[in-house]
From TrEMBL:
Involved in salt tolerance by producing GG-phosphate from ADP-glucose and glycerol-3-phosphate (G3P), an intermediate in the synthesis of the osmolyte glucosylglycerol (GG). The keyword Transferase applies. It holds the Pfam family Glyco_transf_20. This is Glucosylglycerol-phosphate synthase. Belongs to the glycosyltransferase 20 family. It comes from Alkalidesulfovibrio alkalitolerans DSM 16529. SUPFAM superfamilies: UDP-Glycosyltransferase/glycogen phosphorylase. GO terms for molecular function: alpha,alpha-trehalose-phosphate synthase (UDP-forming) activity; glucosylglycerol-phosphate synthase activity; trehalose-phosphatase activity. One of its GO terms (biological process) is trehalose biosynthetic process. It is an enzyme of class 2 (transferase). GO terms for cellular component: cytosol.
Length: 462
């Protein structure tokens, strides 16, 4: 929702999503006030505690999330999770049907709602529906392990347009479709292909999501953020700052990143007391035991590494487990000399793009996992790709960047920022809308109510 908010602002439309609360919560006043300020209407879907457990914590986070991120050993294929998933998708479809019009374009976001178009069609509603997957789509050898693989792939084919973050994800989807739906016929080449099935034509395309570049850059240049960044640098005694920012999740590779920092100080003692690593971990899914165990593992590693290398006046790792206000986060982006964005697998990873947008001095260095969706775009324009499993290789890349020529750092960051600026969140929406029905975002100007794309998604999913 954060990425799309500036696009929907004052353009009208409906936003349908789980309110993050159990059924019975009284949110009418809050939602009405928010809708008035935001310029678009919010309509909540309420779930029971049992539905939250089976649909959100169960099917979404114990099956689809790990499977689609190549962690199939972490999957818990409980049949009751599947039933809960279908029931909740039906609830979303019912709310969508109640509040949308025949002429609306329904844009569904992410893996929590892969059955929504199927449910709408079963209700006899022929709405134009698009779907965008924010996480990776797995190759057939992984996807075929899903017990409900046929039903999922056929449900996705009920959408008119299915969008993915990278060409690799789109290829994986097409290969899974060919394996599971032999009657489907593929045609076309390039960014968008067509799939013919039962007298319908479904399009599948690649639409890498982005950020509101100008908003991040402007805030990074504001006096408040400049002052906060200087205070961060002063507190760390003007040492080079390496920054990691992640939601607490096993797919983000935080333990591997910490081991790379350990290798950095072991292999390259010349950097001891010259650099400080700051890891910001945003709390997430704390009710799931696996995430609690991950938090303990990270905190233990931080303690071990700091115990091994700390010297008077220098602590090698500063670890924060909390949500940061936007201004404070951007201050850290601006203060950091390097950003270490090294997920084990990620659909896109917007932290990489946010760091570039906020690096208004154009002197930072971006290290990016080759398994992040953002690598497809940013490796060509200046990001330094690393394998997050190769902790020695990552340490070597950091050491090399520490001594990188100032002109090279500047050249890399200028290209990175230009790429993110050109391919921003508005470009992303434009590319999807053009593929959906040959229209542009400017066709829905602000201060009108013509942009009525009903967007359904789970606000706690990302």
């Amino acid at each position: 929702m954060t990425a799309l908010a500036p696009v929907l602002m004052n353009r009208g439309g409906l936003w349908i999503g789980w309110a993050g609360a159990a059924a019975g919560a009284d949110l009418k006043g809050l939602l009405t006030a928010f809708s008035k300020d935001a310029g678009y209407d919010l309509h909540p879907v309420f779930l029971s505690e049992e539905e939250i457990k089976g649909y959100y914590f169960g099917f979404s986070n114990e099956i689809i999330w790990p499977l689609f991120h190549d962690f199939q050993s972490r999957c818990n294929f409980m049949p009751q999770y599947w039933n809960a998933y279908l029931n909740v998708n039906l609830k979303f479809a019912e709310v969508t049907a109640r509040h949308s019009r025949d002429s609306d374009y329904i844009w569904v976001h992410d893996y929590h709602l892969m059955h929504l178009a199927f449910m709408l069609r079963n209700m006899g509603l022929e709405r134009n529906c698009g779907f965008f997957l924010h996480i990776p789509f797995p190759p057939p050898d992984i996807f075929l392990k899903l017990p409900w693989r046929d039903k999922i792939i056929r449900a996705l084919l009920e959408f008119d347009l299915v969008g993915f973050q990278t060409m690799r994800d789109r290829r994986n989807f097409v290969e899974c479709t060919e394996a599971l739906v032999p009657e489907a016929k593929l045609s076309g080449r390039g960014n968008i292909v067509a799939i013919s099935l039962k007298r319908r034509s479904i399009r599948a395309g690649c639409f890498p999501i982005s950020i509101d570049f100008n908003s991040f850059a402007a805030l990074a240049s504001s006096p408040e953020v400049v002052k906060a960044a200087e205070e961060i640098q002063e507190a760390l005694r003007y040492r080079k700052i390496i920054l990691g920012v992640d939601r607490m999740d096993y797919s983000k590779g935080i333990p591997q990143r910490l081991q790379a920092i350990r290798q950095l100080f072991v292999k390259y003692p010349d950097l001891q007391e010259k650099v400080t690593f700051v890891q910001i971990a945003v709390p997430s899914r704390e009710e799931i035991p696996e995430y609690f165990a991950l938090k303990n593992e990270i905190e233990q590693l931080v303690g071990e590494i700091n115990g091994q290398f700390t010297r008077p006046g220098w602590i090698p790792i500063h670890y924060q487990y909390r949500n940061l206000p936007r201004r404070e986060l951007i201050a850290y982006y601006r203060a950091a000399d390097m950003a270490l964005v090294t997920p084990l697998r990620d659909g896109m990873n917007l932290v990489a793009k946010e760091y570039c947008a906020a690096n208004v001095t154009e002197s930072g260095v971006l290290f990016l996992s080759e398994f992040a969706g953002a690598a497809a775009q940013l490796q060509k324009v200046g990001a330094i790709l690393v394998n997050p499993y190769d902790t020695e290789g990552t340490a070597k890349a950091i050491h090399r960047a520490f001594y990188m020529d100032t002109r090279e750092r500047h050249s890399r960051m200028v290209k990175l920022r230009d790429s993110v600026r050109r391919n921003n969140i508005y470009w992303w929406v434009d590319s999807f809308l053009q593929a959906a029905f040959s229209r542009h975002l400017d066709d829905f100007p602000q201060e009108t109510v013509d942009f009525r794309a009903s967007v359904a998604f789970d606000p706690n999913g990302k």
